[in-house]
Amino acid sequence: MSRLWRASPLTYFALVAAGGMSVFPIYWMFVVASRSSDAMGQLPPPVTPGGNLGANISRLFGNTDAYFLTGLINSAIVATVVTASVVLFSTLAGFAFAKLRFRGSNALLMIIIATMMVPTQLGIIPLYMLMTKLNLNDRLPAVIMPALVTGFGVFMMRQYAGQAVSSELIEAARVDGCGTARIYWNVVVPALRPAAAVLGLLTFMTTWNDFLWPYAVLNDPENPTVQLSLRALSDGYYQDMSQVFTGTAIATLPLLLVFVLFGRQIIGGIMEGAVKA
Predict the structure, then answer these.
(1) What is the three-class DSSP state of 104?
(2) Do 246 and 62 form a contact (C-beta atoms < 8 A)?
(3) Judging by beta carbons within 10 Å of its beta carbon (0-12, 13-18, 19+), is residue 3 exposed, middle or buried?
(4) Which residues of 258-270 are buried (b: 16+ CB within 10 A; e: fewer)?
């Protein structure tokens, strides 16, 4: 039996190779960001950082066509608000669908699941018309409002709450005089914290990397998100690839930071699910 759990040297080699192939593109992005644009055409390509990172960052933030600093701030605002809203409403709705009994709950859940089957592209035109009627085009609320609640988040929290939240514990809290709001805050939220961390990470990454919807509603070049700023860097006849890679590297750093901050919660959620299974 012990032989089944002992990794062979080939297994370690495969893991190291897979890890290296996954990390190398990110590493090389930072290498090119620290060099001049001609590093892209060198053979063999450089694999060590250069000394132009500070100059590239200075030119990037001084580029009047990209408004990169504004894009970073706007994306941080949009991703933070959307993530907080999705996690809040998803945990509330997930708790309600999993543990509360009310008329029409199954039908409402089916409607929510059905929204996940509609491609995002099909909703762009009606959403754009709605934002125009609300006079929100070229403003950040137009990017934020359609993403405040997601069907995936509600369904995920509903499935997790059904297993992680004990019905006996909820009944005991009701006997002690707790209302639904207090039960949610003191009983449900601690139990859903690992899944909420995973949902928050996925939502933040998706919102931060979103290009299509901001591209549709933010027509003002002076008020972009970070993805629109990266697009502006790569437009035109001449592309300064050192600026493009520098902007991409800086835009990647918040995602790495969020992953580091929520990584322990994610691992805890995986381990908790494995133990329950």
Answers:
(1) coil
(2) no
(3) exposed
(4) beeebeebbeebe
Looking at this protein, which amino acid is placed at residue 92? L
Could you give the CA distance from residue 12 to residue 119 in angstroms, rounded to a whole number?
A: 40
pLDDT at position 273 is 47
Q: How far apart are CA 74 and CA 81, in angstroms?
A: 11
Q: Cα separations (Å) of 193 from 7, 24, 45, 91, 252?
A: 33, 33, 44, 9, 25
Whether the bond between 221 and the residue before it is cis, its omega within 30 degrees of 0, is no
- Which pLDDT score, from 0 to 100, does residue 236 have? 62
Is the model's pTM score more than 0.90? no
**Mean pLDDT over the full length of the chain:** 87
Contacts of 28 (CB under 8 A, 6+ apart): 45, 47
- What secondary structure letter does DSSP report for 45? P
The residue ranking higher by pLDDT, 45 or 123, is 123
User: In the block, which residue shows the tokens 């990794």?
Assistant: 7
The pLDDT tens digits for 125-172 are: 999 999 999 999 899 999 999 999 999 999 999 999 998 888 888 999
Task: Find all residues with CB under 8 Å of 83, minimum gap 6, and list them.
Answer: 200, 203, 204, 207
Which residue in 74, 229, 96 sits closest to 144, CA to CA?
74
The sign of the torsion formed by the CA atoms of 12, 17, 18, 20 equals: positive
Separation between Cα atoms, residue 173 and residue 195, nearest integer Å? 22
pLDDT digits (tens, 9 = 90+) for 75-89: 999 999 999 999 999
End-to-end CA gap in the chain: 21
Residues 6+ apart with CB under 8 A from 252: 26, 29
